[in-house]
Give the backbone structure.
Amino acid sequence: MSRAIRELRRSVSGYLFIMPSISIFLVFFFFPIVYTLFLSLHDWSGITPPNFQGLANYRELLHDHVFRMAIRNTIVYTLMFVPLVSTIPLLIAVALNAKIRFRNLFRLLYFIPVTCSTIIAAVIWKWVYHGDVGVLNYLLSLVGIRGRMWLGDPQVALAAIAAMSVWKLLGYYMVLYLAGLQSIPTHLYEAAKIDGASSLDAFFRLTIPLLRPVILLVVVIATIDSFKAFDAIYVMTLGGPMRATTTLVYQIYVAGFHQFRMGYASAMGFLLFVIVFAISVIELRVLRARFEY
Amino acid sequence: MFRPKERDEDTRKPDPRYTRREFLETTGKIGLGLGLGAAGLAGCAPAATPTPGALTPTKPAPTPTKVVPTPTTPPKVTVTHWIFPLSGDDTEFFNPLIEEFKKQEPNIDINIEIMSWTNRYERMMSAVAGGRAPDLAYLNGDNYCYFADLGGLVPLDDYLAGTDTLEDLLPGARDAMTWKGSFYVLPILQDASVNWWNLQMMEKAGLDTDPDKLPATWEEYEYAIDRLTVDANGKHPSDPGFDRDNVLQWGTTHGLLVFGTWHMFNPWLWQAGGDFLTPDMSKAALSTDSGREALAELVKMYDNYISPADLGGEYVINRTNFCEERAANVWGSGQGLLKQLRKDYPDLRFHVGPILKHKKRLAHGTVAGYGVFSQSKNVEAAVKWAMFVTNKENAIKWSTFFKYLPARVSAGEPVKELVGDPEYSRFIEETPYTSENLIHPLTNAIMQTIVPELQAAVLHRKSVEQALEDADAGVNRLLATYVSPPTD
């Protein structure tokens, strides 16, 4: 038997093992991206046959002020969402990593919103944010603060939705941080304590550097999540008021399913992929550094 | 390539263990063999044979008789019908109807699929784009048009020729389902978005609660809701010193975060004599005197008679505000609110008031019915079923069961009697003054273009004039992207 065939026989088992993952990747990730690119070069209503028109959709996007507004809103949303879900869950995870009473109960309570559907959470929060009968304005009134029309005010509506999203996903990122915290050897903290380090010193000089891979993961996932913001917006504000909460994905939805311009929506979708991919690569390069003790 | 460590073939001893590679190879061979075997068996399967044991008794050979040709039975077909739930259990209505239909058409099976209201347009579009459309579906007057324009729906004119269906439909329902001269959807309901009045609050405000004397013009309406808006000092918006930050009850309610303009703006626009597009539908027509008058009136409503909380609300919140008596009036809510009030707020005294008249007396009234998709492989059967469900007799049964207003003129009086609710009857009286929303393939997109501009005017970020000019510009850009296929 030739050497090449013997080599191939030895490799077959390896390929068979990775084939399911590769198939899933090709079918659910690679092919849709390629097909989206293909559609973005066409004018397609979704019913009549696609009509090739080259880069016309991309040229139109350059002059579409609603698209520019959607990108701006998405970036603002990301700048609000990512820092909050990168820091608050970390602090909660540090607190819940300590040996405190009812630790497991607190962990459960923080995780429950993660298990709830975004749609249900959005419907509930729509009432929480209600100007007259909402819980939020009521609680603020108890401490003498005048409530706002959270979803009806273009200046705060996006922040209100970001806050709801942070609340919803807090538990998820907390679990990631908890896993990272529990992989840090405790003898390092003991050594630091012996050397006279305070809790704050240990946190900033030990915990944060050693958690850097987890922080990187959280930041990348949170960035991707923020660029996909749609469900809560669809339920709570429908992109308003005055398009203040119209994000990129929401605009893709409007272009595809209400304007019946699947090609144009695909162009936006492909641009979204490029933007998220580029940001993820940048984040990976900037934040990747290993500290080992 | 996976490269295991090189070995010397001559000195290698056979590994007695069953390796992972051998396992995968064996499994692969067995799987391939089974697959080929199953395919082979399926291809070579013999024809069905009688069940062993089902012996037929022997009979004497029959006497040869003259052969008479028998009519061929049409093949059995299944019609898939998408509906969206209008009651707790829609099958309670459809199952007996299907049984009745089968007596007339025994070769047609009806498969009702109850789909969720959420994302129904998107699901229908995806189904059509993927070649998986149902045979027929429940369609609204402002969303069938896109499918019709691109040849996705079957025109029903030929099937209705010789029947009196079109003559028996309310004009609004008939016009709503006609696109470019062809009729596409058999209407089963026409709703009416009317004015609702809380009688207790009106009596307290000293207003006349006689059902025939409820506000009927813009001036009467504005007077009434001014009286119904009361601050903590008992003052009204028209009184000096009215404190908008301490209002105990609001005159009316309407959420600003809406999907489309049909309830929020359509009544004001049409009553002011305006419309969304020019008669030939080639350009936007909001920036006119009528449009400006309508938007100014809407802005006045929000500035004076509607809670600021409604800036972040929508339909469900409107209805709840009315039901919970936070507002004495709600405009633009259809017959669904009647069901909610009867069920959940039986003690609330209310009246359905007339649609207002200014230069015209007109408000929005959704029209819905059943349309047949061109992709259907059973068009004839689907049309038969649609015509059966929407015929006179079944239209009355439909409206009585679901408590939605009938689209047929002849069904009006019988349904009024059967439902027996005086407020429901008032709805039926208002339906001649309603119209479906803008009938255009891009209706939803046009709505989504206009709503932000209306919001900008209400929030005083733009003047009325600027908002309408920008709305027109946006709609014109949209219209320019859509090319309607030429009619044959």
Summary: The interface with chain B takes residues 7-16, 45-48, 126, 129-134, 149-154, 157, 236-243, 254, 257-262, 264 of chain A (CB under 8 Å).
